[in-house]
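Blinded run. Sample ID left blank on purpose so nobody reads anything into the name before looking at the predicted structure. Input follows.
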Amino acid sequence: MDETVHHLAVFVSRLWQIHVFAEGNTRTTAVFFIKYLRTLGFDVTNAMFAENAWYFRNALVRANYNDLKNGIHETTEFLELFLRNLLLGEKNALHNREMHISGKFGSNKKQDIEPEKQDIGHEEQDIHISTIYAGCVEGLSNKTIKNIEKVYGKLLGKEYFGRTDIVNILGITPSPASELIKKMLERQIICTVEGHGKGKYRFCDTGKN
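Blinded prediction complete.
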């Protein structure tokens, strides 16, 4: 089963990485994967994917992300923890903070957890947006990046959101919220959503330069 779990982790991470399902790639990958697992005899539902959507998405990122200069290598270990819970009924803790890599920059030490990282209960601070949308945040101020991270942590996984959601999360007025939306659209961090009225968006499945 250890070999099976590893094989499945590699399989789904590579399927996700080639972006075969275009828009909605992460969600569709999960549905496809569930159906595939059922053909192998596993009684799998969407429940764990729904409850750990952000962890699953970030585990896919870590399974494909390399920064060799800083000693960061792609790893399926986080996906395997998720799959062991899903397929074997294990109770491994699934913490996004354990995938945090910012503490490694400027150091060649091979560690995946920032030494002094504290769990402060806000998932949106666990992984930097620049890791997920590599290249998309270049030229933005630190304040803007932090605001995007806050919005990402609160709204990732929602079918769609609008300007009012950003206003409520950041405690800002509509005008700067619209400006933030414009910047995220320009950098393809968020995409427009049709069929729910004007001004509805969601986070894109992958960042694009």
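Unblinding after everyone has recorded impressions. The chain has two domains: 1-127, 131-209.
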